[in-house]
Amino acid sequence: MKIFLGLLAILSVSTVVLASESAEDLAVRKCGNCHLMGTITKEKVDNMKAPPYWAIARKLREAELTRENKIKFMVEFAFNPKREKMMFPIETFNRFGLMPSMSGKVTKEEIEKISTYILGETRE
């Protein structure tokens, strides 16, 4: 019983910590290795695996979609990426390829939170 209560306490604390994680921290942790988020270093730029997050935000701003539909698009693309859904030109696809599905790596709620961050906090 003590072990069960101990595990329950750990799970509860972990859930609270993850729930309180800022959108920026979540985005950096889940997306930053590929999309150039967080602290920008020469090494990160040299090893960039995908368009930087602010380029994604710019493409989304250019799209004639409501904010809600932009978030929905990002969720759908994260879980089911397809070349024909990409908002970038063919040169971007040729450089980086197609993003792998994030299914099983992030939740829908996490992608929604990350999307809100990307749409609200951009660099140009």
How does this structure look, described?
- The chain is mostly helical and 124 residues long.
- Helix content is 65%, strand content 0%.
- Helix 5 packs across helix 7.
- The chain is globular.
- About 6% of the residues have low confidence.
Q: What is the strand and helix layout of this fold?
A:
Elements: H1 2-20, H2 23-35, H3 42-46, H4 53-62, H5 67-79, H6 90-96, H7 108-120
Key structural traits:
globular, 7 helices, mainly alpha, 124 residues
Rg, alpha carbons = 17 Å
Instruction: Give the percentage of residues in beta strands.
Output: under 5%
Query: Distance N terminus to C terminus?
Result: 55 Å
Largest sheet: none
Q: Helix count?
A: 7
- The amount of helix comes to 55-70%
In short:
The protein is an all-alpha fold. The chain has seven helices and no strands.
